[in-house]
Amino acid sequence: MTQTPTSLVESTHHASDMSVRSDLTAAHAHVWEKLAAPGTWWNGSERLAVAEVVRTALDDPNPIPPWDSASNSGRLPNDSVISPELQDAVYRLAVHAGTLTEEWYQKMRDATGVTPQQWVEIIEVTISVASVLRFAQIAGIERPDFPEVLEGRPTGQPQPSKPAKHHWVPVVHLEDVTPELAPYYDGLTALAPVLRALSSVPAAMDTLATLGNAQYIPMREMIDLNWTRGTLSRRQIELVAGRLSAHRECFY
Amino acid sequence: MMLRASSAANDLTLDLDVVRGDLQDSDAIQHAPELAALVDASINDWESLPSARAALVEATDEATMLDAAAVVANFEMMTRIADGTGTSHPADRIESMSDMFDSMGLTEFVSARL
Fold this sequence. Notes:
Number of helices of chain B: 6
Radius of gyration of chain B: 16 Å
Order of helices and strands of chain B: HHHHHH
Structural class of chain B: mainly alpha
Number of strands of chain B: 0
Number of strands of chain A: 0
Largest sheet of chain B: none
Radius of gyration of chain A: 18 Å
Oligomer: heterodimer
Distance between the termini of chain B: 16 Å
Strand content of chain A: under 5%
InterPro entries (chain A): AhpD-like
Largest interface: A-B, 68 and 70 residues
Shape of chain B: globular
Helix content of chain B: 55-70%
């Protein structure tokens, strides 16, 4: 019998002899349920094709330089449902995100034809795979396989996103909140730019919030500079966060 | 940066070199060397991950190691969101943190969208 996306994650977490927090297992299961299912702008096959590029890139012990083409290197499938140009963009996002520039973004959009919202959804797939697989690798537990594709059409649900001052992609501003974004916007007078970055695709906001709440700090606890789960102190959390970000050469 | 803010909130002075440099035990951040070693191994040296993981468990406990792994995973996410969407800081925030950016060499990053 085919395993469900949730059972793929649960079986790997439970197979380890460690006690992974149940809310963390649930968060990873939630994004695995969405991984190969129809999204907002991509279908399940296309989302899985993006996920496969991300996994290949993350596993690459000797990644190709950012200026080279991964699709020409023989590392990626040549029968993918996504174009070689998009495979290249996904590979670079997965392993060389710190090298991306606005000029690259515009050229990538010209070469691939993706809309900003489609790019945001590609980022969503990328962060789902990076979160689940990197956690397993670092914790020393088995990695879950990818789920099977769920057939169906993308929802195509638009949002009132507008050009943004602090992003290449358009975002939904706080004053334009929609019912889909209310869980992330309601009651807030400001929201850090990085937390608004995916707002043109609410399903991507759901992924960000679900993973962030379980892996880092619940969004609404962020202002408590002494927040802890009883394991890492807030300063220890921020040391890990800052050091990882510095390794990735992420200025933000 | 939240590390500076969370230290200041507790009247602790923190050398921000902890983010990029070699680490010693400090009162401000317990088990900083073991935490940093796990992060470093996850990026640069996958073969040393088991020993880094074991050292952190020995210094703390299994639940703490798992939570540290989860934070690493989270910032594998956040760095790709920020750099994939071209997210930048508001001007007032950049100004307030410019001393830190300069001293840590962060403005040399390609991703420094100033």
